[in-house]
Design brief:
It is built from 14 helices and 19 strands. It is α+β, with helices and mostly antiparallel strands. The protein has 2 domains: about 50 residues, no CATH class; about 400 residues, 2-Layer Sandwich (Endonuclease, Chain A), CATH 3.30.870.10. The strands form 3 sheets. Strands 10, 11, 12, 13, 14, 15, 16, 17, 18 and 19 form a 10-stranded mixed sheet that branches. A 7-stranded mixed sheet has the order 1-9-7-6-2-4-5, sandwiched between helices. A two-stranded parallel ribbon has the order 3-8. Helix 2 packs parallel to helix 4. The protein is globular. The two termini are about 25 Å apart. About 45% of the residues are buried. It catalyses: Exonucleolytic cleavage in the 5'- to 3'-direction to yield nucleoside 3'-phosphates. Belongs to the phospholipase D family. One of its GO terms (cellular component) is lysosomal lumen.
């Protein structure tokens, strides 16, 4: 993956996109104003014709049937459940636990009656895909079998990053032969990135979003976190618009600018969707990356992250696999400090407590360490500066070490004293500039309910991991070889 667009071009593209979005939003406002005015006028004419029927007898009323934009409050009985994959052999001395992602996926397929849309990076759900003979692949194989069965009974659509020739494609062939519709999104040609998103939309009323790929290892050998939302058509419809963008791009060689109005949304960081989530009043929205994939009204993922940090009043806890203030895959190398600068700024200006839990495994890039050590230096209790970094290591037996690309904490979330952010991206520049990702952002600070908020549950997950035996403080003397 590479980025051939220079910074000035990116700024120019973003300015043109924002200008296009403003024009679309102005068009919406004009439509609403015109429709409202016309409605009032027709009501007056109708009333006058009733009171004075003879006046209009020679002039029949016009047959006008305009589609009026609607903004309705969401009253769906939405239920959200945090879900996790805990790698085989990983045990916590904690009562904090959540349903498995495997069970969540099987449950969603049980619920499916009409349609199932999956946005995915790649597919390796079987032992054959990974050239392994692991018993724990049985969960991924069960998911694939059930998906194949559903593909012959209802509408199953899969948007996937265009696979490289070396990548396994047997799963996709099986699903296609079973009746699934598959579109490969050529992100390399569109943005020079990849389709890294991981979400499901079921019957346009249930969703899953999180860090887990369509990979058997994501169910039993990799630590993952996501969220399932049931019976929430308003939110599912909005996530469906992001899927439809991928679906469109699966047959397009260029990105629309601006996107057609049908892809736009009313819900973003400034005007979130207001809905009852677990019987709790909640402000919710979905963000997306890259910015060129965001239709009018959609908050780009980077802006969502920066906004969540800005709104924090007490603490910011972050758990991601990779953290780099660079364009990780660009040539030539490029520094990219948007998130890093924001963290340092809020720690200094607002005295926010910052905690970063970063993964450490066989594929960890050594260049991450000096940048993380630099952040960890922003710690001085006397000056009320409090940024701390820890490394999370998933232990592996000799046999488990033979499983390729496994035994890692793959989480991608952030939680503050106000907001829960559950995403699908690693935290380096490419994921927000050229790679397709998405995130669910939930604010329940207005809650008066006895139900635990999503934010409190996610905070408990972070603190469980932070205080566990698998977490080690990063110091200036920490060495990659000693940990990973």
């Amino acid at each position: 993956m590479k980025t051939d667009i220079n910074y000035d071009q990116l700024v120019d593209m973003e300015c043109r996109r924002q200008e296009s979005n403003r024009k679309v939003q102005m068009y919406y406002r004009c439509l609403i104003a015109m429709a409202t005015g016309l409605s009032v006028l027709l009501t007056a004419v109708a009333l006058y014709s009733i009171l004075t029927p003879n006046v209009f007898s020679e002039y029949p009323a016009p047959n006008i049937n305009l589609p009026l934009p609607k903004v309705e409050a969401c009253s769906d009985p939405c239920k959200i459940v945090l879900v996790e994959s805990i790698p085989e052999g990983l045990q916590f001395n904690s009562s904090t636990a959540h349903p498995s992602i495997f069970r969540a996926w099987m449950s969603l397929m049980d619920e499916a009656r009409i349609s199932l849309d999956v946005a995915s990076f790649y597919w390796t759900l079987t032992n054959k895909d990974t050239h392994t003979h692991e018993e724990t692949a049985n969960q991924g194989e069960a998911v694939l079998q059930k998906l194949a069965e559903l593909s012959g009974k209802l509408s199953v659509r899969i948007a996937v990053n265009t696979p490289q020739e070396s990548q396994p494609q047997d799963d996709l062939r099986l699903l296609s032969d079973s009746g699934a519709d598959i579109r490969k999104v050529n992100m390399r040609e569109l943005t020079s990135g990849v389709l890294h998103t991981k979400f499901w939309v079921v019957d346009k009323k249930h969703i899953y979003i999180g860090s887990a790929n369509m990979d058997w290892r994501s169910l039993t050998q990799v630590k993952e976190l996501g969220a399932v939302v049931y019976n929430c058509s308003c939110l599912a419809t909005d996530l469906g618009k992001i899927f439809e963008a991928y679906w469109f791009l699966g047959e397009s060689k260029s990105i629309p600018s601006p996107w057609p109005v049908s892809f736009s949304t009313l819900y973003n960081k400034d005007t979130p969707l207001q809905l009852p989530l677990n019987n709790t009043p909640s402000d919710v929205y979905l963000s997306s990356s890259p910015p060129s994939f965001c239709a009018a009204g959609r908050t780009p993922d980077l802006q969502s992250i920066l906004s969540v940090m800005e709104d924090a009043q007490s603490f910011i806890y972050i758990a991601v696999m990779n953290y780099l203030p660079t364009m990780e895959f660009s040539h030539p190398k490029r520094y990219w400090a948007d998130i890093d600068t924001q963290l340092r700024r809020v720690a200094y200006e607002k005295r926010i407590k910052v905690r970063l839990l970063i993964s450490c495994w066989g594929s960890t890039q050594p260049i991450m360490f000096p940048f993380l050590k630099s952040l960890a230096l922003v710690y001085d209790p006397k000056s009320k500066l409090d940024i701390q970094v820890r490394l999370f290591v998933v232990p592996a037996t000799p046999k488990q070490k033979e499983i390729p690309f496994a035994r890692v904490n793959h989480n991608k979330y952030m939680v503050t004293d106000k907001i829960a952010y559950i995403g699908t991206s690693n935290w380096s520049g490419d994921y927000f500039v050229s790679t397709a990702g998405s995130a669910l952002v939930v604010n329940q600070t207005a809650s008066q309910s006895q139900e635990p908020t999503v934010q409190s549950q996610l905070r408990d997950v972070f603190e469980r991991d932070w205080n566990s035996d698998y977490s080690t403080p990063l110091t200036q003397h920490s060495n990659l070889r000693d940990f990973c």
